[in-house]
């Protein structure tokens, strides 16, 4: 096998064109086999095989720096940089990350995980290179879907001022996670079919090179800002910004991409190489449904179907069905997503209410402010977004939604530990960053039924609110507790204060089920605990806190969020002020970023599973 001969980046440069094509096929087979066992991002990596090989041919890594936007398509890069043998533990606890990590390898020049950042990061590296008088190439790779993010244009605007080489590779597969939307997608469609200019350029250059003084004429044409290209591809955005445009290039022809990169390398300013690729290439199920194979769990290679069947609905499924039911009765309800209709459960809403569904592309800040505008116009917008991606619209939540007290409801999916995607995707900060904003209400359901009730309640609230729920199967326990939701009120599920219980557990969201299991396990050891569901993280139920603190000697708060600025800190501060004789023990996540790994493994390692909490409470002498 050719792949087995690649032990370092230099090995690839000795291969013939035929061997390179064989290598590409072997890499695709390797990716499908490994990801079918570990899960991970498949379609995007299948699409960049030849592009990555060409990068390794054209540049000298790790001296030269390559920045991958988002970074989930860096698997081929990891294979070629000597990490192939680590793929058996891809995205596993303590194993290979699914994203670039500087601490993992010198070939990873910048940590990435969210979209639209690579041009900014690469520009910073290039500026550092120039100021320090160093000599190396910087290449930022960005997808066409990521160009819907405003940060990319901020970076392009500044890149145009570069006086030394800086290369941007536009990996254009006509997809983000789901199919691309908006004006930039339409613009790039025009570029993809704009062959007239490139054909003419080749003919003109070829003719001029054959006559005396022809090279000087070629250089003069290249320096003309609004030259021939403008005639054949109207509105050449990149050229008009001062960034040389090369392409489009067939992204699955290694030598063509290599030549384009080498041509870009010779320029003394910013240049964009437009590369056309096919997401999922080489694996039929992923080619047919690239969105489905963007991020996958372990699957059967022959059929492409997941190995583990989903027996019960996830919180996302519950949200999806409940929102559609409510929207059938209220025509003012609209839904907004940032390129995640599948992941957030809005695909069903989009199908049933297409005129009331808005996919803004990878543009979370715009999603939030446009939703604020809809609310100001009298609609009831629901913004469905992953917790870690909502961070990208924080300023807009604070300034555009909450200052005006506009009734925007945030459905915050993938909150808490999400597992294998690691630090950039763990949704463990939203309690902290949302509860410090005036006029914001934050809720967290204990089970699937409470999520349904909170959604209905939130849409009637008439003010900014967020409902925060985790990834995975919706909890079906505690079904018998379905008290109507009152603003700012929690619920007392188990009250053993009259039976001598000294410990009260006050949990929110996903940690209510953990607290329930703690109660059950301690009761078997003869230790009774009371149990309360906070429901509201902000405003938390002060009357409930007073009752628990007044009838128990210890209140244990439980949350799947960092302790700093979280639910427990607020409750503890309140109880210590009003009930100085009552102890408060806060269970939550430490002030750190959490690595990738299985959620159950992470919970145990971080000490927030029921057994670890019980052990810690015993060590502290609480029973």
TrEMBL record:
Where, in this chain's numbering, is Mg(2+) bound?
A: 144, 173
Q: Which Gene3D superfamilies match?
A: 3.40.50.920, 3.40.50.970
Binding-site positions, thiamine diphosphate: 72, 113-115, 145-146, 173, 283, 364
Its annotated pathway reads: Metabolic intermediate biosynthesis; 1-deoxy-D-xylulose 5-phosphate biosynthesis; 1-deoxy-D-xylulose 5-phosphate from D-glyceraldehyde 3-phosphate and pyruvate: step 1/1
Which reactions is this enzyme annotated as catalysing? D-glyceraldehyde 3-phosphate + pyruvate + H(+) = 1-deoxy-D-xylulose 5-phosphate + CO2
Question: What cofactor does this protein call for?
Answer: Mg(2+); thiamine diphosphate
Q: Write the record's keywords in alphabetical order, separated by commas.
A: Isoprene biosynthesis, Magnesium, Metal-binding, Thiamine biosynthesis, Thiamine pyrophosphate, Transferase
Q: Name one GO biological process term.
A: terpenoid biosynthetic process
The free-text note explaining how the cofactor binds reads:
Binds 1 Mg(2+) ion per subunit. Binds 1 thiamine pyrophosphate per subunit.
Q: Name one Pfam family in it.
A: Transket_pyr
- Known EC number: 2.2.1.7
Q: Which GO terms describe its molecular function?
A: 1-deoxy-D-xylulose-5-phosphate synthase activity; magnesium ion binding; thiamine pyrophosphate binding
Q: Does the keyword Magnesium apply?
A: yes
Q: What are the GO cellular component annotations?
A: cytosol
Location of the Transketolase-like pyrimidine-binding domain: 313-477
Report the protein's function: Catalyzes the acyloin condensation reaction between C atoms 2 and 3 of pyruvate and glyceraldehyde 3-phosphate to yield 1-deoxy-D-xylulose-5-phosphate (DXP).
**Entry-linked NCBIfam families:** dxs, PRK05444.2-2
Record's family? Belongs to the transketolase family. DXPS subfamily.
**What subunit structure does UniProt give?**
Homodimer.
- The name under which this protein is listed is 1-deoxy-D-xylulose-5-phosphate synthase
**Which species does this protein come from?**
Candidatus Caccovicinus merdipullorum
Gene (name only): dxs
């Amino acid at each position: 096998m050719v792949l087995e001969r690649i032990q370092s980046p230099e090995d690839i440069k000795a291969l013939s064109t035929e061997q390179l094509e064989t290598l590409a096929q072997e890499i695709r087979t390797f990716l499908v086999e490994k990801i079918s066992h570990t899960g991970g991002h498949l379609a995007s990596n299948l699409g960049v095989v030849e592009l990555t090989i060409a990068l390794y041919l054209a540049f000298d890594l790790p001296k030269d720096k390559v920045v991958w936007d988002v970074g989930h398509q860096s698997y081929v890069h990891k294979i070629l940089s000597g990490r192939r043998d680590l793929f058996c533990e891809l995205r596993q606890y303590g194993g290979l990350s699914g994203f670039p990590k500087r601490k993992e390898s010198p070939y990873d020049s910048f940590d990435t995980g969210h979209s639209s950042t690579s041009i900014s990061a690469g520009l910073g590296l290039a500026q550092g290179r120039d100021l320090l008088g160093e000599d190396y190439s910087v290449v930022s790779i960005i997808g066409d879907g990521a160009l819907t993010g405003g940060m990319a244009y901020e970076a392009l605007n500044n890149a145009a001022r570069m006086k030394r080489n800086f290369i941007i590779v536009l990996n254009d597969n006509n997809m983000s996670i789901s199919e691309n939307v908006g004006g930039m997608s339409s613009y790039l469609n025009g570029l993809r079919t704009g062959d007239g200019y490139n054909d003419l350029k080749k003919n003109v250059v070829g003719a001029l090179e054959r006559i005396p003084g022809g090279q000087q004429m070629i250089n003069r044409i290249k320096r003309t800002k609004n030259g021939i290209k403008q005639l054949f591809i109207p509105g050449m955005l990149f050229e008009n910004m001062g960034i040389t445009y090369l392409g489009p290039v067939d992204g699955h022809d290694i030598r063509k991409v290599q030549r384009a990169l080498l041509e870009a390398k010779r320029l003394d300013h910013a240049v964009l190489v437009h590369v056309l690729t096919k997401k999922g290439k080489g694996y039929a199920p992923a080619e047919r449904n690239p969105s489905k194979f963007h991020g996958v769990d372990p699957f059967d290679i022959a059929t492409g179907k997941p190995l583990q069947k989903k027996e019960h609905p996830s919180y996302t499924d519950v949200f999806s069905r409940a929102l559609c039911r409510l929207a059938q009765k209220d025509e003012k309800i609209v839904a907004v997503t940032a390129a995640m209709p599948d992941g957030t459960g809005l695909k069903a809403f989009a199908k049933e209410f297409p005129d009331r569904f808005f996919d803004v592309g990878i543009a979370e800040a715009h999603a939030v402010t446009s939703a604020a505008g809809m609310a100001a116009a009298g609609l009831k917008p629901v913004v469905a977004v992953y917790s870690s991606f909502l961070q990208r619209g924080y300023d807009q939540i604070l300034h555009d939604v909450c200052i005006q007290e506009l009734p925007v409801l945030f459905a915050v999916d993938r909150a808490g530990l999400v597992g294998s995607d690691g630090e950039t995707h763990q949704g463990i900060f939203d309690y902290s960053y949302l509860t410090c904003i005036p006029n914001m209400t934050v809720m967290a359901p204990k089970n699937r039924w409470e999520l349904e009730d909170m959604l209905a309640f939130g849409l009637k609230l008439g003010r900014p609110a967020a409902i925060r729920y985790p990834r995975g199967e919706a909890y079906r326990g505690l079904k018998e507790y379905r008290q109507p939701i009152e603003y700012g009120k929690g619920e007392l599920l188990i009250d053993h204060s009259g039976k001598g219980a000294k410990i009260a557990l006050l949990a929110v969201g996903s940690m209510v089920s953990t607290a329930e299991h703690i109660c059950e396990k301690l009761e078997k050891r003869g230790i009774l605990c009371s149990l309360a569901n906070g429901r509201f993280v902000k405003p938390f139920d002060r009357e409930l806190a007073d009752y628990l603190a007044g009838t128990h000697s210890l209140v244990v708060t439980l949350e799947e969020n960092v302790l700093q600025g979280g639910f427990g800190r607020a409750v503890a501060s309140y109880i210590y002020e009003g009930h100085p004789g009552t102890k408060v023990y806060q269970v939550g996540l430490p002030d750190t970023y959490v690595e990738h790994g299985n959620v159950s493994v992470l919970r145990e390692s971080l000490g927030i599973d029921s057994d670890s909490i019980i052990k810690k409470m015993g060590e502290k002498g609480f029973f």
